[in-house]
Amino acid sequence: MSKRDLVDEDKFEEVKAIVSNKARSNTKIVPVVKGEIDNSVLLGIEAAAEDDVDNRHSIHEEHHKHGHHHHHNDDIENMLLEYPETNDIKELVTELKEMVSDKEIYRIKGFVNIPEKPMRMVLQGVGDRFDYYFERPWREGEDRLTRLVVIGKELSNVE
Known about the structure:
Strands 1-5-2-3-4 form a 5-stranded antiparallel sheet. The protein has 2 domains: about 1-35, no CATH class; about 45-155, Hypothetical Protein Yjia, Chain: A,domain 2, CATH 3.30.1220.10. It has 4 helices and 5 strands, in the order H-H-H-E-H-E-E-E-E. By secondary structure, it is an alpha+beta fold. It is globular. A hairpin with a 6-residue loop joins strand 2 (about 105-110) and strand 3. The relative contact order is 0.16. Helix content is about 25%, strand content about 25%.
């Protein structure tokens, strides 16, 4: 929440309660003082958003369930790409870069299942810049899948 420095503690708590009631339960509220915020917060570094992909809306799920697409503010949409595994991370990144160059895609983030590796890989992309790294061991009973959330415009024709 920006402009935290312009309100007293009581008013901040009141506004925070309003925002919390309208946001998803796992949404973090970060107070911003004098317009300054750590870049890691803005970029989602170590935010573990990929742990919450099951709760993210997919335009493809909406299309299949209801026969229409769900649009968000300014036609910004998100969709979930899911694969059983990814054998070659560099090949996946090349394919994602091609998709980004063909479509209006702003961000891609999620996790990758590399066969025979005990750890799950996090993949993040903004524009055509991608980063990936092993994050933590797969948990017992956790679905080993490659799941990527794609955010952009006119995603209904993305394969």
